[in-house]
Design a protein that fits this description.
The complex is a heterodimer.
Chain A lengths: L3 E4 L2 E4 L4 E8 L5 E7 L6 E7 L2 E5 L6 E7 L2 E7 L7 E8 L12 E2 L3 E5 L1
Chain B lengths: L3 E3 L2 E5 L4 E7 L6 E7 L5 E8 L4 E4 L2 E6 L4 E6 L8 E10 L6 E5 L3 E6 L1
Parallel strand pairs in B: 2-11
Antiparallel strand pairs in B: 1-3, 3-8, 4-5, 4-9, 6-7, 7-8, 9-10, 9-11
The chains are: A mainly beta, B mainly beta.
């Protein structure tokens, strides 16, 4: 099973709202990722968690706050977003975020389509 | 930094072969991936190739890697209308112990299959 699940599928929020995106995998992967994808563009990496610790933050604004409660779950807390933050948010996981051995193939979830009004 | 490039668009007729090309710049690449994305969906892993291989075949898919020219291609045999999607190539960059690994994506090639 190579399934990564994401909820909700769609989310519409105002600029003053607080919401959260959720991601879950049960493949025993120890690295999890958040990407942002605008229309007709490739995914852009936002955050990487490796062994439940934040290892990469690609200079993402503080209105996006990631959280990794355990090795299977990854959340993205949203607060005071701007309309330009509207995008498809993709979660991915891989076996290990560590260097060396193996393909470390990333498996993606279906995404959450976020619209900020 | 690493740069991965693809042509934007490819149109083929159903039953023909499709060839999607990708170039990359990092000579220390370890694994190169092909992902497929249908409208409104996430990325589906199609296949990958290790950098010490020249070719990998998986049913209708053939990946060719020319490491000298840093050129990667994906050939889809007997292309079907269900193959219409955006195809991304991606290069895996190992950042070191505990640093997490990064995928650098190409811009994506939109494949249109005409009946």
């Amino acid at each position: 099973d190579t399934e990564v699940t994401q909820t909700p599928k769609h989310l519409v929020m105002g600029m003053t709202n607080k919401k959260s995106l959720k991601c879950e995998q049960h493949m025993g992967h120890r690295a999890m990722y958040w990407y942002k994808q605008k229309a007709k563009k490739p995914p852009e990496l936002m955050f990487v968690y490796s062994y439940e610790k934040l290892s990469i933050n690609e200079s993402v604004p503080s209105r996006f706050s990631p959280e990794c409660p355990n090795s299977s779950l990854l959340n993205l807390h949203l607060h005071a977003l701007q309309p330009e933050d509207s995008a498809l948010y993709l979660c991915a996981s891989s076996q290990s975020g560590l260097a060396g051995g193996g393909t470390d193939t990333q498996y993606f979830g279906p995404g959450t389509r976020l619209t900020v009004l | 930094g690493e740069d991965v490039e693809q042509s934007l668009f490819l149109s083929v007729r159903e039953g023909d072969s499709s060839v999607i090309n990708c170039t990359y710049t990092d000579s220390s690449s370890t694994y190169l991936y092909w992902y497929k994305q249908e409208p409104g969906a996430g990325l589906q892993l199609l296949t990958y190739i290790f950098s010490n291989m020249d070719m990998k075949q998986d049913q209708r898919l053939t990946v060719l890697l020319n490491k000298k020219d840093k050129h990667l291609s994906l050939r889809i045999a007997d292309t079907q209308t269900g193959d219409s999607a955006i195809y991304f190539c991606a290069d895996l960059l190992l950042r070191g112990c505990n640093a997490g690994n990064m995928l650098t994506f190409g811009g994506g090639t939109r494949l249109m299959v005409k009946p």
